[in-house]
Design a protein that fits this description.
InterPro entries: DUF899_thioredox, Thioredoxin-like_sf. Pfam families: DUF899. This is DUF899 domain-containing protein. The protein is of the alpha+beta class and 196 residues long. The protein has two domains: 30 residues; 156 residues, Glutaredoxin (3-Layer(aba) Sandwich), CATH 3.40.30. The protein has five helices and eight strands, in the order αββββαβαβαββα. It has an eight-stranded mixed beta sheet, covered by helices on one side. The termini are far apart. The relative contact order is 0.17.
Length: 196
């Protein structure tokens, strides 16, 4: 197939994806939010309530990260640095993992991460949000919350997986001949992302 033919076909597929995303936004707008409690989590500076993570915003994005043992979660988190300053102009943003704050701080410093982190190690937060696996581990994803007065609701969430929309690297690899090729993540999920 000629390059020009493929280019047109791919442009059509991308438009279909854009249309599906618009329908997803419309569906989300009609969802009845899920009431959640004001969980206490651990931070570098001590205990912190979920309500405080919103900062001055009504909305909060919480990344469910599986911790330092997951290479894919590290890959996703590396990508947040570039967008963090833009995200926080619109909503609160925090990465939550099962690692203790001392472990989180050391790892964040080694990666140059700028975003805040909290630990759900002594909380049912991740499990209650559906990000605990049936095998006793954790699952990656994102939850979005809204705060209205003293009320906190979850308005949307989705899991992460290799090839998803939350890591730009997959999409650059998709454009290469042979896709991800022999990159270390080829055709497999690391053990940290396969426990469900």
């Amino acid at each position: 197939m000629k390059y020009t033919d493929v280019h047109g076909k791919l442009a059509d597929y991308r438009q279909q994806i854009a249309n599906i995303r618009e329908r997803m936004r419309e569906t989300l707008a009609a969802v009845e939010p899920q009431q959640v409690q004001d969980y206490e989590l651990a931070s570098f500076d001590g205990p912190v309530r979920l309500s405080k993570l919103f900062g001055e915003h009504e909305d909060l994005i919480v990344i469910h990260n599986m911790g330092v043992a997951c290479s894919y979660c590290t890959l996703w988190a590396d990508g947040y640095n570039g967008i963090h300053q833009h995200v926080v102009s619109r909503a609160g943003f925090v990465v939550s993992s099962p690692d203790r704050p001392t472990v989180q701080r050391k790892f964040a410093e080694s990666r140059g991460w700028k975003f805040p982190m909290v630990s759900h190690a002594d909380s049912s937060f991740a499990a209650d949000m559906g990000y605990a696996s049936s095998k006793g581990g954790w699952l990656p994803g994102v939850s979005v919350f809204r705060r209205e007065g003293d009320s906190i609701t979850r308005v949307s969430d989705t899991g992460f997986s290799p090839g998803d929309d939350f890591c730009a690297l997959w999409h650059f690899f998709d454009m290469l001949p042979g896709g991800v090729g022999d990159w270390p993540a080829v055709g497999r999920k690391p053990s940290c992302c396969s426990s469900s």
